[in-house]
Amino acid sequence: MRRIVSASFAPVSAGLLLALSASAAAGDGERLLTAARIHTSDAGMPVATAVVWDADGRILAVGEAAELAARHPDAERIDAGDATVVPGLIDAHAHLVGLGHALMQADLVGARSTDEVVERLQAFARDLPAGAWLMGRGWDQNLWPDTAFPTAAVLDAAFPDRPVVLERIDGHATWANSAAMRAIGRDLAGDWQPDGGLVVREDGQPTGVFVDMASSLVYAAAPAPDAVWQEQAFARALEHVASLGLTGVHDMGTDDGGFALMQRFADRGALSVRVQAYASRGAGAIEAMCRDGAYRHPSGRLDMRGVKLMIDGALGSRGAALIEDYSDDPGNRGLLVQDEAGLEAAVRRARECGLQVATHAIGDRGNRIVLDTYARVLGDGASGDHRWRIEHAQVIAPGDIARFAGLKLVASMQPTHATSDMGWAGDRLGEARLAGAYAWRSFVEAGVPLALGSDFPVEFPDPRLGLLAAVTRQDVHGQPPGGWLPAQVLTAAEALHGFTAGAAWSAFDEERVGRLAPGLRADFVVLDRDPLAVPGGELDDIVVRSTWVDGKPVYEAN
C-alpha cells in the first residue's frame, strides 16, 4: 500500500533535459511525443501513438507516429518507447493545503491501537521544540481492538503538559488531550453543544473527542502555523501529487488563506498542478465572486468559479445524517452541520451569481436534503447545464439515485472510501442500506456522470489506488475475494474516464484538459503499463514514469 509520506521530488533526468534544451535552442518550438499507445479519453480518436504540441503547451495534433512525424518534421522528438500515455489524472475532490499539513504532522494512518498512536506521537515529538503543540492526523478507532472513541486520558499519560491535537482520518472528528482542552478557555462540561457539532462527554465531562463543527473549538485555540511552514507544507504537497501522476486537483472548501497561498505559488510559476478551487462558504468567497466574478490566474493553473457547501458529517465518526438510526448506535441519526434553511439560502445566492455548487453529503438523509434543496432552487431550470455536484454521494436511498439524473447533477465520488470503509460500513448501516452505498455502477446505469477523486488527505492521494478500488472493489491485499459489493464495480475505462475527462467535465474544464485532443492543454502522464490492459489487481503497481503539465515535465522517476 502506498502511504502518504514526505515525497522526494525526483528531478527531470539529464537525458530529458538535454532533449528539451535542444528544443529550446531551436526556438522552443513544436514537440512530438511517441509511445506504444496513447489513450486519449477522446471519442474522436480513442487510441494513438503520437501527440504534438506547441511552445505554449497547446496540443496541435494527435494520431499515428509516422503521419505526425511527416507533418511536423521540425518538431523535437521525445520517444517514450513501450510506455502508455494517458491524459493528466485529475482528482475531483481533494484538499491540497490539508495534504501539505498532513505531510508536516505526525502520521497516524493505519495505526492499529492507541498504543501505536502514542508510539508514533512520541517518535514525532522528539524533533519538536519545547512548548510546541503536537499535531497529527489519520487515527481511526475502527481499526483498534476497542472501536470506541478514544479519550484524553490516553494522551495525557504520555503528554501531560504538551498540547496534543489529532485529526481523525475522515477529517470529521478531533482527539485532544487535557492540555489542549485547557487552552480552549471555556468550560466544556455540561450538556450544551455547538451548532453542527458534538462535544463527546461522559457524565457531563468532555472525553477529548470533538465531532464535526465542535472541532473548531480546539483548532481556534491552537497556534497558527507561520508563513514559512505553510509554504514548505504546500511545496511538499505539490511535489507529492506530481509524483503520482496528478496534473489537476479540484480543491474542495478552499479558504481565503489557502487560496492566497495558491496564488503566491502561481504568481512565481511554482504551481505545478492545475487547481480548480471551490470556495469554502465561510471564507466570504461567495459574495466576493458575486461582486468580482469568477477567478482565473493568468497562468491557467488556478481557477475559482464554484463554492463547496456541507450538510452532514462522515460515516466513520457517525456524523453522516441518516434517515433511520445507525444500526450500531440506536438513537443516533448523525449530524447536520448546517440547517436546511441556511443551505438553501447559500445555494440560491450561488445560483443568482452564476456559481457552480458542490455540496458535501454522505448519509442518505444528507443526500436527500441536498437533492430536495437543489430541486427547489433549480425549479424549471433543472434541465440546464449547471453541473451542480454532490460530493461523496456515499449512502443513497436507492430510489433517490434517479433524482441525480433528473436534476442533471454530477456524482463526485471517491472509490477508496469504499475499500477503507468496507470493514465496518455494514455495522453502521445494516445490510439493507448497503444497497445504495458507494453505488458507482448504479449511478452509471442511471445516466449520472461520475467525477472520481480521493478526498486526500482523508485517503491516500494516489489515483492508482482509486483505479484499483473502482475496478476490483478490493484493497491492495486483494481482499475480500471477489470484491466487496462487487455488483458496483466499474470497468477500467469507466474508472480512467472518471479521473480524466469526467473530472474535467464536472468542473466545466472539458475544453482545456481531461482529454488529449487538438486545442487542449498538453497535460499527460507516462506510465510503464497500460491501465486498460493490466489485470485489475495490478493497477496500483503501475509505475508513473513522468508527469507533464502544459507540455513540460513536472516529475520524472529516477
Automatic annotation (TrEMBL):
Pfam families: Amidohydro_3, HUTI_composite_bact
InterPro entries per UniProt: Amidohydro_3 (IPR013108), Metal-dep_hydrolase_composite (IPR011059), Metal_Hydrolase (IPR032466), MQNX/HUTI_composite_N (IPR054418), YtcJ-like (IPR033932)
Protein keywords: Hydrolase, Metal-binding, Signal, Zinc
Signal peptide: 1-24
Domain Amidohydrolase span(s) in chain numbering: 78-555
Domain Aminodeoxyfutalosine deaminase/Imidazolonepropionase-like composite: 56-75
Name by which UniProt lists this protein: Amidohydrolase
Species: Luteimonas colneyensis
